[in-house]
Specification:
Strand order of the largest sheet: 3-4-5-7-6
Strand content: 15-25%
Organism: Sinocyclocheilus anshuiensis
Membrane topology: Single-pass type I membrane protein
Catalytic activity: L-seryl-[receptor-protein] + ATP = O-phospho-L-seryl-[receptor-protein] + ADP + H(+); L-threonyl-[receptor-protein] + ATP = O-phospho-L-threonyl-[receptor-protein] + ADP + H(+)
CATH architecture of the largest domain: Orthogonal Bundle
CATH superfamily of the largest domain: Transferase(Phosphotransferase) domain 1
Helix content: 40-55%
Largest sheet: 5 strands, antiparallel
Protein name: receptor protein serine/threonine kinase
Order of helices and strands: HHEEHHHHEEEHEEHEEEEEHHHHH
Number of domains: 3
Structural class: alpha+beta
CATH class of the largest domain: Mainly Alpha
Keywords: ATP-binding, Disulfide bond, Glycoprotein, Kinase, Magnesium, Manganese, Membrane, Metal-binding, Nucleotide-binding, Receptor, Serine/threonine-protein kinase, Signal, Transferase, Transmembrane, Transmembrane helix
Length: 457
């Protein structure tokens, strides 16, 4: 009976008992308490006792434990976790995906808008882009005159170059190659040519700009370099080389002599060393071909594309080989280049390879010369012996092993000018580089021919 009454009291007032036990348990020294969560109370049970314990302490502790057991044995309502429906689950997944797609489309639109804005062609130049470093009314001829008479002969100051490059209006693309694209542009109403490199070809751009700015390099038969700059349009970096624009010129008998003589004059100037405080080192082109020779409106040529050129330091007898991976055009490679017998440490070897290539350019010019209304269709050298894009092995077999050269038609013998040209070509094509003519010797021979024909340069 007494036990039943005690159980009823425990069931009726568990919270008070537990509260007493909580107070009591806090006074028990050296004990560890476990906290138990239930639907009616928070209780503390003695889990481990350390030290002596009186009887009343043990009974109260047992009472609390019994009450907690009763509480825990009762059914406690549990809350089931919320289950997402198919619509909510789909929304949870689709939401972040839509946000990411929106951000990607926004970024693409901004980049595309910047690209279109950069490449759009305005109808007229913006006068607000003029710079005080270049006075109003200054022309390209004035700038070229200033850079040739300033004493340094190494080109315009870098700040002026950048000013010019950033005020040029691109018109249209006139050519595209493996390493860049050439655009026709306008600067203050004057036509210029802009060679644009990608940022991957920064070495080639830097090398060509460096060669063009060599002291005393400027010559009427070498492409007139104006400026170099790098432009960031927001999405990629473009590397610009700005030069004078020249139009194509129809080849005639008189034109053949002008083209050949001016080409030889330009190469002779490159190969020549000018000694002095404002001197010029000897330079070899290493990639001479018809595509790298531009024709001016007066019918003379100028040599372009100096990205592979090398300079010779006579004081130390060293060559600054271009630090890039480009090689010359296989079709125009000299025999010693094709069979790897060229002496890379001897500067004269590079000059002799240039002479071989110039002989092939002369053949292209002479082939288009009309005599009595008869002329050949334009063809590349060795067009009938190799494919359109020959390999080094193919060219070596034809040039070195079979020792073949471009065909010289018999009709050339009926014209004095073509006879002289044919003789020069053969002496440029010798397998032995040391036996070939020099650029200066070719220039003198063609100058005499020009005087005989009464041609004024």
């Amino acid at each position: 009976m007494r036990r039943r009454r005690m159980m009823m009291m425990m069931d009726a007032v568990p919270c008070r008992l537990v509260f007493l036990a909580l107070l009591f348990g806090a006074r028990i020294q050296h004990t560890e308490a476990l906290q138990c969560y239930c639907h009616r109370c928070v209780c503390v049970c003695v889990s481990e006792l350390k030290g002596p314990l009186r009887r009343e302490q043990a009974s109260v502790s047992l009472l609390v434990f019994s009450d907690v057991s009763l509480l825990l044995s009762r059914s406690v309502p549990t809350q089931k976790p919320a289950v997402l429906g198919p619509v909510a689950f789909a929304a949870l997944i689709a939401g972040p995906v839509c946000v990411v797609c929106f951000l990607m489309v926004t970024v693409f639109y901004i980049c595309h808008s910047r690209s279109v804005l950069h490449h759009r062609v305005p109808n007229e130049e913006d006068p607000s882009m003029d710079h005080p470093f270049i006075t109003v009314g200054t022309t390209l001829k004035d700038l070229i005159y200033d850079m040739t008479t300033s004493g340094s002969g190494s080109g315009l100051p870098l700040l002026v170059q950048r000013t010019i490059a950033r005020t040029i209006i691109l018109q249209d693309s006139i050519g595209k190659g493996r390493f860049g694209e050439v655009w026709r542009g306008k600067w203050r109403g004057e036509e210029v040519a802009v060679k644009i490199f990608s940022s991957r070809e920064e070495r080639s751009w830097f090398r060509e700009a460096e060669i063009y700015q060599t002291v005393m390099l400027r010559h009427e038969n070498i492409l007139g370099f104006i400026a170099a700059d790098n432009k960031d349009n927001g999405t990629w970096t473009q590397l610009w080389l700005v030069s004078i624009q020249h139009d194509r010129y129809t080849v005639t008998v008189e034109g053949m002599i002008k083209l050949s003589l001016s080409t030889a004059s330009g190469l002779a100037h490159l190969h020549m060393e000018i000694v002095g405080t404002q001197g010029k080192p000897a330079i070899a082109h290493r990639d001479l071909k018809s595509k790298n020779i531009l024709v001016k409106k007066n019918g003379t040529c100028c040599i372009a594309d100096l990205g592979l050129a090398v300079r010779h330091d006579s004081a130390t007898d060293t060559i600054d080989i271009a630090p890039n991976h480009r090689v010359g055009t296989k079709r125009y490679m000299a025999p010693e280049v094709l069979d790897d017998s060229i002496n890379m440490k001897h500067f004269e070897s590079f000059k002799r390879a240039d002479i071989y290539a110039m002989g092939l350019v002369f053949w292209e010019i002479a082939s288009r010369c009309s005599i009595g209304g008869i002329h050949e269709d334009y063809q590349l050298p060795y067009y009938d012996l190799v494919q359109s894009d020959p390999s080094v092995e193919e060219m070596r077999r034809v040039v070195c092993e079979q020792k073949l050269r471009p065909n010289i038609p018999n009709r050339w013998q009926s014209c004095e000018a073509l006879r002289v040209m044919a003789k020069i070509m053969r002496e440029c094509w010798y397998a032995n580089g040391a036996a070939r003519l020099t650029a200066l010797r070719i220039k003198k021979t063609l100058s005499q021919l020009s005087q005989q024909e009464g041609i004024k340069m």
